[in-house]
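Lecture notes, continued. The same structure-token format from the folding unit now serves as the input rather than the output. Read the line below as a description of shape only.
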């Protein structure tokens, strides 16, 4: 791997600083799919690849709720 000309940690033609951090809110807390529906709200300040997945305790995919490019805020419901 060639590192000549590399500038780790510095802005370059393939990166940009994001003024705001993405936001994520999950209600109710703590999560319990047996009691009620869960609302997952997310907000991306710039266009980004958004993926919202439900995984089980072993890390296996249970449901893919969102997988797309978008900016702004949305919410999805999960009723387990």
């Amino acid at each position: 791997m060639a590192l000549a000309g590399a500038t780790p940690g510095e802005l370059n033609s393939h990166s940009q600083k994001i003024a705001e951090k993405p936001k994520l809110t999950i209600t109710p807390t703590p999560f319990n799919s047996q009691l009620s529906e869960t609302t997952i709200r997310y907000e991306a300040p710039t266009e980004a690849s958004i993926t919202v997945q439900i995984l089980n305790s072993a890390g296996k995919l249970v449901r893919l709720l969102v997988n797309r490019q978008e900016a702004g805020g949305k919410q999805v419901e999960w009723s387990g």
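Point for the exam: The first strand starts at residue 23 and ends at 27.
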